[in-house]
Design brief:
Layout: H1 3-14, H2 18-24, H3 28-37, E1 45-46, E2 51-52, H4 53-59, H5 63-70, H6 73-80, H7 90-95, H8 102-105, H9 110-125, H10 130-133, H11 143-150, H12 152-169
Antiparallel strand pairs: 1-2
Helix pairs in contact: 2-3, 4-5, 9-12
Length: 170
Amino acid sequence: MTSREDDVSRDDDRNHTPLLIAARNGISEIVKKMLELHPQSVEAHDIDEQQNILHVAIMHHWLEIFKLIKKSKSITSRMAMKIDRSGNTILHQAATMRYYSADTQRLGGPALQLQDELRWMARVKKIISPHYIMKHNKEEKTAEQLFNREHAKLLRSAQTWIKETAQSCS
C-alpha cells in the first residue's frame, strides 16, 4: 500500500466505529465480544454511506459476522430494512463484487465461485422482506440486475471452465 492509500484507509477508519471497522475487516472475535459487552453498538452506522453492520458484513461476504448478527431476529429484520445512500438494500450489497476477495477465489474454479456467489445471494434473500427484492437503487437496478451485471465475466469464465473440464474428461 502506498502512503496515499494508507492515509485514505486511516481517514475511512476515523469515520467509523470500532464495531464497523472490525466488521469491515472480518474480525468476528472482536465483533462478537463488542456485541456481548455493548449490544447497543449494533445501532452504529456509517454516516457517509448510511450502511449498518449488516450491510458491511454482507458486502464483504463475512459469513461468521453475518451469522452473529442473524442470531437476533429483531435486530436482523430492522437492519435488513435499511437502505444506504445509494439506494442499495442488503440484497444489492450481496450482489456486488466490489469487495470480491482472494479468499473467495481460492475455490476450485470459476463455476464453484459463481455457485458460492449464488448461495450468498440466496442466504441474504432469506432475511430480507419480499418487497425489498424488487427495489431499485439509484442506478435503477434491482439486486438481480446488479448481480447479473457484476457477475457476467465470472459467468463467462465458468461456462468456459465447465466446457474445458467436460472436454478433458471425454
